[in-house]
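Sequence in, structure out. Go.
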Amino acid sequence: MTRTTGATLATAAALAVTATLMTAPSATATTTTTTHASAPAAEVSPHAAQTIDNIGASGAWWVNDLARFDPKVRARVARLLFSRQGLHLSSYRYNIGGGGTGVTYAPRAPEDFLAEDGTYDWSRDKAGRTFLYYAARYGVRDLIGFVNSAPAAWKTNGKSCGGYLKAENEQDFARYVADITDHFARQGVRLDHISPFNEPTNSFDGCGQEGMLVPVEQRDDIVRALGAEQERRGQRTGIIADESTSTVKFNDEVPRWIDQPGTAQYVDRLAHHTYDNPGDADRAKVHETARAAGIASWSTEICCFGKGGTGWAQEYDPTIDGGLNLSRIIYKDFAVAHDSAFQWWVALSEMIGSDPHSRNDQGWNDGLIYYDPDYAANGNQTLYFTKRYYALGQYSRFVRPGSVAHDVTGLPAGVEVSAYDRGGQWVAVVNNHNSTDTALNLHFNSKTPRAAVRAVRTSAEENWARVAEPSLARGTLSTTLAARSVTTFVLDQKRHSAPTALTGALVGAQSGKCLTADASGAALAGCTGDAAQSWSYDARGALKGSQGYLTAGSGGLTATASFTGAAGQRWLLNGNGQIVSEASGKCLDVSGRSTADRARVIVYSCTGGDNQAWSRE
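Output:
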């Protein structure tokens, strides 16, 4: 990664907000008249999907630079990340350093706590501990310790970059991580989760940062060693693994280690990164992998997309384009992978490139807030905000831990909506990727919204701006979305509001034909409008046709007369048209991509194909 010069940023800083010690950025005031939308209504599913655990970011690396900033600036950063007026993050990833031995870039060489004589020096890593303690004082829900490299003395190459953890030191490493957990607990800072290895297929042997290879066959050994050590001490810290770089690696490698005897019992959450820019098929496979293991999945790292898309690219983009791309990734992780958490990579970064205010090809989209890499020479401690900061806040400030996700179907082109039941309130986060204002009607099929209490928007000109609330009538939200914007709506719910089932035909995107109930479960047939093609989907996740409840089992699809609540009788209606079995995470699929009448309908791994996409009519 390239670095800009201090002279360039010092000049640019004169144009920036120079009040570096002010409070968190206030919302841009906006007055907007909401017009009644005439679009067909999208539907919020009456059936709950996953419960959201947290939304957060990482404290790796930048903390080492901020150790030399004015304490008032550090305090301001803490407010920007953790306070209700800032991002109000509900998770924070603390980097348990590996000592930085051999790492060539000092900010990415965090100290470890292990002294040469085998004792502990708890005065180390003051920079990292500062923001961990800030997160704890602000009451961040989930504090996560994650390891890029074990201490160098236990590595095959004696460095904090590249190499492997030696097998004979696995137990030493487990005790070390457990000792750190105990130490912080004694300081009043409980680590809720530990990730013992991060991106285990990346060695980072170029030594620009810490890293450690962990082969698939060693991952279960480390998890069991740490889990048993925690169990022996009575620690309640959950283990997350394996933090694969990509969804493809996650889906391929997790089943190979999680199924080893005595391993799954120690894993609290399965973790993946999305640097492969996954499509819907790979994200849906994450859900299938997690369902097979019986453990919820988290999306725990992403950054560095650009050039107009969500794929890896070198670019610094502080504009709404970058904000909308981040919001799209969050939407996809929650709505397709059904992850229970989203965690951005570094909260702050110095990789600002040539201009902190404009898109450029010298920097990187790895942070939410930026600072001058040459602050030490020029004294510039200005903080530069990106639209990614505000886009993440459209979720993190409102979608709080315990919020329950509900899928949304039938959306207009260019619009993405994720809806969350927050216990007495609905929260809907809406992305409008269109370059024009777009009408939206959104119908809630359970816990009918009673009143709109808040609408907050980020756009090219606005940051968390309070805008006019949408209109509500008979359970339907109506509004016009501003072009290229992210808007969060908060709605109070009526008490004792009975859920309403979704009813109608289900039409295959590939064939244009209807899902038709028969004695064997379902088949494909030309749409006739008869009773066999009418389906009801209710708050239990049941999909009922004229022959009974559609049920997925080991022998395939069947129709059953009664609903028992078994996972094989529950389905998720993904916003992309997938109908997903909660038993397996697999999709309702037209076998062989057939378009013929009476073509067999089965449950099959989600591929993203149009033979697995269904629309309700």
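Check: DSSP finds eleven helices and 34 strands in the chain. Confidence is low (pLDDT under 50) at residues 1-24, 31-36.
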